[in-house]
Structures are given as C-alpha cells and as structure tokens.
Amino acid sequence: MSRAKNLQDADISKIVEILDGWTGKLRWELLIDEIEKRLFSRYTRQALSKHARIASAFSDRRTALANSADRPVRTAATPELQAALERIARLDAKVGRLEAENNRLLEQFVRWAYNAHTRNLDEAFLNRPLMSVNRRQTRTSKVGQGRD
Questions:
Q1: Distance between CA atoms of 4 and 109, rounded to whole angstroms?
Q2: What is the DSSP secondary structure assignment for residue 129, as one 8-state letter?
Q3: What angle do CA 37, 41, 44 make, to 5 degrees?
Q4: Minimum mean pLDDT among 1-15, 80-94, 117-131, 134-148: which range?
Q5: What residues contact 3, with CB distance under 8 A and at least 6 apart?
Q6: Least buried of 17, 47, 87, 96, by fewest C-beta within 10 Å?
Q7: pTM confidence score
C-alpha cells in the first residue's frame, strides 16, 4: 500500500467538516474510512491526530455526540424538512466547534501576551512587520575561477 499524500490546510478543513456533520458512533476507524471515501486517501489515526484542528474537532464532536445520546433523534414528515433539520444540526455542530477553536486561540493569545510581558516586550515590538522575503534566485559565484 502506498503512502497517502501529506495533509494540506484544505484537506484538514474537509476532514473537520466531515466531523461537523457526523452522526452515530464516532471512532477513528470509522472516520478514516469516511475520509478515504471522500478524499481518496487513507490516513492513519496517528497522522490525523497529530493535527491539532482534527484532534480537537474529533474530541469535541465525540463529546457532543455523547451528550446528545439522551435526546431523541428528530425526524421530519417530508424529505425537504428532514434535509433542513440535518443542515441545522450540521451548522450547530460547526458553530460549537468554531466557538471551541476561538476559545483555544484566545487562551493561547493570553499565554503569549503574558510571556511577552514577562520578557519586557512591548506592543510596538510585537507589532513590527515581518521581514520581507527575497524570492529571487540566489546568485552563486563560480569558485576557483579568477576574474580577468
């Protein structure tokens, strides 16, 4: 079996969207099978869980599913209404995941702000622009050849 391609940001977003719409039992093996169906690549649990967004989305969704196990499943009389209920459930899951991601990022910012403060880094220093990157090809000098 060949190695799956490296996960890019777009792939990670698609996997997180799969988790947002997940219903029923959630296990890594089931998620891996679903990813293979949709992205045509098979990843290992270790490859998926090393990406923080995937690991946290998996954990958050698993918790949400466990908490919703007590609630009855909503079904509708018409297929259109059922599709709308499923979309609402998927969007609710997405909102919950995004709120959790936002809270983690805010916590990280507070940690970074505190660490910057303890090292006497002021706001002006932290807001300095990044150095520009010179993407032109590097010139190489010819070694061993004298100039005439």
A1: 34
A2: P
A3: 105
A4: 134-148
A5: none
A6: 87
A7: 0.69
